Amino acid sequence: MTSTSAPITTIVFDLGGVLIDWNPRYLYQKLIPNEQEMNRFLSTITTPDWNEEQDAGRTIAEGTALLVEKHPEHRELIEHFYGRWPEMLGGAIQGTVDVLTELRASGRYRLYALTNWSEETFPVALRQFEFLHWFEGIVVSGTEKSRKPFPDFYHTLFSRYAIEPGQALFIDDNERNIHAAQAVGMQTVHFQSAEQLRQELEQRGVLPTAQLSA
Prior knowledge:
This protein is α/β, with parallel strands linked by helices and about 210 residues long. About 45% of the residues lie in helices and about 15% in strands. The strands form two sheets. A five-stranded parallel sheet has the order 5-4-1-6-7. InterPro entries: HAD-like_sf, HAD-SF_hydro_IA, HAD_sf.
């Protein structure tokens, strides 16, 4: 948490890992029963770096073809990454959705989302999670052909929605993205759990402090 006296008018949420439980393991534990082999596949074949290229705008078809060409022996497992992508969604992180619900009900803040997400798979999430429609705007990396932690991606959010960075609070579970947000002038919370987020928002006066019952 960074300290600042600037008033918070806008709250910007990351989605995956903050509001939505997304994890390739939910799919691949069905496909590769041996956990050690599954972890090796996810860390050396369908790597986070490879996935982020699709998040940054590379098409699923191109990303899959490139990986199959490099690892033809794993063709079927690679193709399942996006072919069965919805099975990687574990559901909403309810504690954070509760926080978002309270922020929305307060009417005190403008609410946005800034997410690294493939343009081709994001519609699946939009259909599945009603709370995504509560935001005034969502900036999706795959649509913008850029992503966190690159500064231009944050500036797209600022310019599109007339956001003053110093009055915006950014919530993300990736420390790399938190540092990038701080570099462009945003206040931040490094998300670790819904409980920790609530406590930090209470400390900042963004949410009212819970009153203990007698």
